[in-house]
């Protein structure tokens, strides 16, 4: 499939950012509920919610197992926590936990699912819950929220235009059944076909990222930066993009602006620390300087 491709630069990101009402309150700037983290991947939740908070959303809630909440609470004091029961990976999340998440989601302006959740029946139950019980709320699905749908994408079909997905090439291959070589040969076309068929927004991550929307347009963003080739970089991107969604930015623009801000913060981190030594948390540390460029 041939796609209409346009470049989206860092300077374009500022046109997508919502205005800051100086008379507003925390509710003015949206509420993000993130369902992230598991015993092995507690840091993924820390990175995602920290990145989201740095990008202007008014309230961030984290629904996670108690061990993840404890790890995040020790590092991110601005987050609100909804502890979930630990359960074996082979079992779905208990009904009472899903009911608690539903109450939290009712006051949310966006949801973030997947960062560090693990590919399990528990994760699948969370994705199915979001598809069935969060009507009208934008949902960003990352990592294992996508992997758990390998071979059965019914929840994603149900979400439709509410869904923004952020797969790397391997995750996109598992989700679509396309070969990695086939995707890499035509990333814009592969992402565009899937976005058009399901009505969702696709952020196909590689050394250059392609953002495909149901209208057929593909935005190309970023520049190669080997400093991003470290676990946790995608969690930061997911948090940035979900923060923009929660503030009311339309999915295509939220995805493109999120990628541009992430790439610029990564560029600054690599210049300060080198691409070899920089960490995903250093990308978050650069975000204030990135936003300061808006007013210069």
Structure write-up:
- This protein is an alpha/beta fold and 296 residues long.
- Helix content is 46%, strand content 15%.
- The protein is built from 13 helices and ten strands.
- It is globular, with a radius of gyration of 18 Å.
- The model has no long low-confidence stretch (mean pLDDT 95).
Helix and strand composition category: alpha/beta
* Reported CATH architecture: 3-Layer(aba) Sandwich
Strand order of the largest sheet: 1-10-9-8-7-6-5-2-3-4
**Which topology does CATH recognise?**
UDP-N-acetylmuramoyl-L-alanine:D-glutamate ligase
Radius of gyration: 18 Å
Order of helices and strands: EHEHEHEHEHEHHEHHHEEEHHH
Q: How would you summarize the topology of this molecule?
A:
Blueprint: E1 4-7, H1 10-16, E2 31-35, H2 42-53, E3 59-65, H3 66-73, E4 80-84, H4 95-105, E5 110-113, H5 121-133, E6 139-141, H6 144-147, H7 154-159, E7 163-165, H8 169-176, H9 180-185, H10 187-198, E8 201-204, E9 209-212, E10 217-221, H11 233-246, H12 251-273, H13 280-292
Parallel strand pairs: 1-10, 2-3, 2-5, 3-4, 5-6, 6-7, 7-8
Antiparallel strand pairs: 8-9, 9-10
What would a concise description of this structure say?
With 296 residues, the protein is α/β, with parallel strands linked by helices. It is built from 13 helices and ten strands.
Primary descriptors:
alpha/beta, globular, 13 helices, 296 residues
